[in-house]
Amino acid sequence: MEAIRAYLEKIKNIPLLNKKEEEDLIKKAKKGNKEARRKLINSNLKLVVNIAKHYAHFDLPLMDLITEGNIGLMRAIDKFNPRKGYRFSTYAAWWIRQAITRALIDQGKTIRIPVYMSELIAKYKKIKEALRQKLKREPTRNEIARGLKIPTEKVEELELWAQKKTSLEAPIGENGNSQLGDFIKSEIDTSKEIEKFFVRERIVHLLDFITNREREILDLRFGITDGKPHTLAEVAKALKISRERVRQIEKSALKKLKKYALEEQKKALEF
Fold this sequence. Notes:
two-stranded antiparallel ribbon
């Protein structure tokens, strides 16, 4: 706890950036300006802490979660494309959560494999074996990614999940009739949180397909950036529009997301 208190004390007075400051620092950081990169990282350290707190009931200490989240933050700077139109903090939140969840997958003890990921793991293994037979060697992540029609980063994540799945299914006991997963307590809260992460992850990925206004409203309504959902009234007040208009835009945006999500799921699961 002392380490956490010292860290929070260290970052509490770091000022947040407005949109213009953020855009300027992004441009400079993208050109290799180390000072701009440092300022961009520091200004988002409190965002990492806020996100990490949502996972504090898992197996890893909060300081470890924050450290992993900071790694995700740094990766977000490398990956961010300012031409997409949304703020860096919205984009960074996805990478922060992904880094934290990867750490939980890799190091945690009570993670249940979601159905969605089990399906992708099965396809990953099938594609990998097919490529191995065709190429007469171990396929690279890029080759597997092309076969699965997903980003290379997702292949890395699939590998982590596959390792966790393998370890949970490994036979143990005197007769080898049991699996490690049988001896691990299934925590409902943990499972739900991981499922929520994947829903959130897929939504953030699909945000590229909707307008800036729709993205802004979904971000506020579902707490995509800070994990804090807001009511129709709160969003309407913040954006200075009527609650009915917020509802209409939200409904339209969700309809689009559902359409694109179904199309992507079909692509991901068909051979």
